[in-house]
Amino acid sequence: MKPIFKHKGTKVTKAVNPMPGLTWCSLCLSVLFSTLVFSDPFATNLTLQAALDHGAENNPQLLAVFNQWKGAEQNIAVQKGLPDPTLTYGHYFESVETRTGSQNQRFGLSQTFPGFGKLSSKKAVASTHAAGAGDRYRRAKLNLNLSIATSYAELHYLKRSTEITEDRIRLIQDLEKVARTRYKAGAPMAPVLQAQVELGRLEDRLLSLNDLHQPQKAQLNATLNRPATAPLSWPASLPYRAVEADPETLRRELARTSPELAELAHSVEQSGHQIRLARRERLPDFTLGVQFIETGNASTAVTDSGKDPVIGTIGINLPIWFGKNRARIASAAYKKTAAQFSLENREQTLDADIRQILFKLRDADRKINLYKESLIPKAEQSLEVNRKAYEAGQMEFINLIDAERMLLEFDLAHERALADHLIARAELSQLTGTDFLTEKNKHQDTKNTKSDTP
């Protein structure tokens, strides 16, 4: 603020703000808006890697599976431990008179020791269950990555579709101006009407795309455990990496890399331990204990008067219900057989699914290269040639519209192929457990990974 110099004899009037509260209100709103924007990085910069990292840390379903895994690991210590000891107390409602005195109450302490091999079998069952829970967590994370990548790709495709449609609207508006100029010069009015029809069609498409923006954002926000209306910018880019993978190589590595097959394999292993545990349930458990009986003084003078007896005890359960034991073993055996069939079935269907995804990748790659290298440049050239021919009066306007529609179709198909390629890579990662989504690996073609977007 510049200083005010008051000359002698001059009256200075201080400026008055007619709405003093408005300035403070505007300042507070600006600070609040800036705080909200800068505290939420997705409001200004949305990348696939950032979305994947945020989802891994905040998705409630993934966190639930993670805690189930950790709970299963803690259960191992529970299963391998001895049962809790038993403390007993007995009170005689009528004293038992003995030579050494009257017995009034008794105390007992006992500990059960499971039969040979039972604790080790229970530990093995719990350990394989925990390992399967770990595989389930890995699979849930891959499923989450697939959901995030799909929503991200669809949102990017929506962004590019909107931009392309807006560009075509500007093009048709320019063409309409040319048609109007020629109409004023005596040309037919049909080109003007054709341009207006095409403009209306494109504007309707743009309205649909704009209306779809909020549902698409809500879908990605839900996957990231954010409110549906949370600010979310357009995706910054669509990462592209060409993938070359041999289905036979992937199939051989599935037993090592696929969390789904690993979970099923652990289920088979767990069933085997359950069979051994069921067989060992036929062995008896032993219980060792000690009892103390409180004894009062004898009514007559005798040796050991009032001496409290101490009794050692040993117990054994009798697993004599052989039908129940046989049924327990048979039940565990059936579960193992079912787990083996499930594993065998998934190995076959997984191989077929991988081959289908590899086809999608090859098909998307072909389309990306075809549209980028051949069809789009030719369609652009065709549109420019038709435009110059129309302006020179050598071409019908409908031919220009057809050229514009063809270029629009090719541009959208190219963006659709890019989105499908990312989704297919996420699906391949989800099936194999190998990261084809964000990181380079030995299956990728390094010659074609120089840029993120083709």
Automatic annotation (TrEMBL):
InterPro entries reported for this sequence: MdtP/NodT-like, OMP_efflux
One GO MF term attached to the UniProt entry: efflux transmembrane transporter activity
Gene3D superfamilies: Outer membrane efflux proteins (OEP)
Domain of life: Bacteria
Family membership: Belongs to the outer membrane factor (OMF) (TC 1.B.17) family.
PANTHER family: BLR4935 PROTEIN (PTHR30203:SF24), OUTER MEMBRANE CATION EFFLUX PROTEIN (PTHR30203)
Protein name as it appears in the record: Cobalt-zinc-cadmium resistance protein CzcC
Organism: Pontiella sulfatireligans
